[in-house]
Amino acid sequence: MKALLQRVSTAKVEVGGETVGEIGAGLLVLLGLDKGDDEAKAQRLLDKLLGYRVFADDEGRMNRSVADTGGGILLVSQFTLSADTRKGTRPSFSSAMPPAEAEGLYNLTLQMLRDKHADVAAGSFGADMQVSLTNDGPVTFLLEL
Asked: In chain numbering, where does the motif Gly-cisPro motif, important for rejection of L-amino acids fall (predicted)?
């Protein structure tokens, strides 16, 4: 399981020209699901994500989490994060979770996130999405479990 976190001042997802998810200041989270990922991993990832200190405190140090700031979280499924890029010039997706299984785990992860955090928006699983963001910093981290 991989989550690419980007600290943003704004982010949104459009599908077919319609906005399906949008946040102000917070985190854009691109989520890649691999074979063997499960609810327990999703829970650990969400705990880490909500507590990960990427926002400035009063002294300008990254010492506050999205839970501390009350910022938004935009969760977007990102199949390509599961690519194996170690060989050649074409990515391999053999380690990616099959789409039907991934959709179930993505929806479960989204529901668990909504149960834990007030301001959550999401993309549309499997859709051709247009994601726009203003990366604040830029600040980007890859969390892997």
From this structure: 137-138
